[in-house]
Amino acid sequence: MSEWRPIETAPKDGTWLLLGDFKEADEDQHDVGAAHFDDGKWTAPFLPDWYWRGKFAPTHWQRLPSPPY
Question: What is the pLDDT of residues 6-16, one digit of tens each?
Fold first, then answer.
């Protein structure tokens, strides 16, 4: 599996990526989701805008895994 990389190094060409919000090392749960960079911001059609503004601020990324076939 790929290693997590700092969000500043993420491609911003529309490629779908796995994003993680790992601000607090001692949290029991971290937020992870697939998204892509579009129109100057990270976006995913299944996450509402308020989620990005208030809760999810990705700190790391990695490429999506290959399909199982």
Answer: 999 999 999 99
Give the distance between the most distant pair of CA atoms in the chain: 37
CB 21 within 8 A of CB 35: no
- 19, 33 in Cβ contact below 8 A? yes
Hey, what are 16's tokens? Answer: 């779908």
Q: Name the token pair of 62.
A: 């990695």
C-alpha closest to that of 41 among 10, 64, 65? 10
> CB of 57 within 8 A of CB of 21?
yes
pTM of the model: 0.75
CA 60 – CA 9 distance, rounded (Å): 9
